[in-house]
Amino acid sequence: MKKTFKASLTILLLMTFIFVAACGKSGDNGNAGEGKKGDGVVKIEFFQQQGEEAIQSAYKAIIDDFSKEYPNIKIEMNTVPDSVKVLTARIASDDIPPLFTDWPTQLQFKEKVKNGYIEKLSGQPFLDKVNKSYLAMTPAEDGEYYSLPYARNYMAVYYNIDLFEQNGVSIPTTYAEFIEACKTFQAKGILPLYLPLKDVGHIFQSTNIAYVPGGVEEMKKVVDGEGKVEGNQAFLAFANKLNELTTYANQDAFGASTAMMQEAFANGQAAMVISGSYGRGNIKLANPDLKFGAFPLPNDTQETTHALSGVNAALSVSAKAKPEEKEAAIAFISYLARPEVAQKWSDLSGEPSIIEGTKYEDANLQPLLDFIDKGQVHDWMASTLPGNVVTELYSTTQAFLLEKQSPEQYLKNIDATIKLNAGK
């Protein structure tokens, strides 16, 4: 929960910061708070929304380094389950963390900006260190910037390089080749694909974007009351493909979580998994010796294949924070934007940094990033659809697979789910 100072200390702390602002040395990028020393210690909560072990460990390592350089600032990281719901509830109760991660391309973030909850960061020198193409994805509706975009993410197929080589399987570039690879592994007693259908959300998003180019926009028409997906041939093909994937998956798929999938893949129990960049670090933690690469989940042709990729959790400051909290938060964000710090975070977390001067040190994943750089990508659904609609579509998809509904019924249910939750 949010850390606050006793009222009797507020004036003392504010005077301390005024003093260190006048006497402290300048930092490497000229931001307020950079390099300043003082006897007072400001504690700020860092509400960090990514629960993966590797990502949390990476932030902890950076916080430890930061505290040595800035002993007057104490960053207390807080990561909780259902962080999106928790943060929404805290904002509603006027308990906004001074520093938090969020997703600046999503509709929910833009609503927070419009309601005055997030501090404007336009003009901060650390924004100059962000890859320009990804920075361009993040302005709010007023054209201003309210976050430091720190990494890009992706959904892809991770594959066990040794199993592919030992069984003479080539990297598939079409859906038909992907299914042939699954058949080859299955015939040899190797689990082709581990699916975590207990956590079906990201599987739904990545397969829909892969198999239905323009599908998110079609669902947006349903949100706006201007269309339907029922009878849409591309969506029917998507439903059939999603069904087919389950026939090559683990028998306990509906009880399997994302963490279980990552551990199973790390231990060589499956040839492939559909996972995000966030999973790479956890897989490497579980088995540092595993050789694995990645390729985009293929559609019928390379030309119609699209990968799910966007700006990952970025860092923002509460507009409601105290002046000393804002100063401390900006000091930490400025520190994170240093190329050498961003590189360390990327190496530890497994996430590809978008800070200029960093490299993604994994040659086996470079072909995927090269594909993404060509532009055949789509952002996460919540950048186009209301977040509650996306969440409810997860349950709709899980029911489709678990109850073995017909593809036709699934499409009707998608329409019904969207209309029920779109607030129209």
Any descriptors?
424 residues, alpha/beta, six-stranded mixed β-sheet, four-stranded mixed β-sheet, 17 helices, 45% helix, globular, disordered N terminus
Task: Write a structural description.
This protein is of the alpha/beta class and 424 residues long. The protein is built from 17 helices and ten strands. The chain has helices at 7-23, 53-69, 83-92, 107-114, 132-135, 161-166, 175-187, 201-211, 215-223, 233-246, 258-266, 277-286, 323-336, 339-349, 366-373, 387-402, 407-421, and strands spanning 42-47, 73-78, 99-102, 152-160, 193-194, 272-276, 292-295, 307-311, 314-317, 377-378. The strands form two sheets. Strands 4, 5, 6, 7, 8 and 10 form a six-stranded mixed β-sheet that branches. The chain has a four-stranded mixed β-sheet with strand order 2-1-3-9. Helix 2 links the parallel strand 1 (42-47) and strand 2 (73-78). Helix 11 (258-266) packs across helix 12. The longest helix is centred in the N-terminal third of the chain and has 17 residues, at 7-23. The chain is globular and about 65 Å long. 44% of the residues are buried.
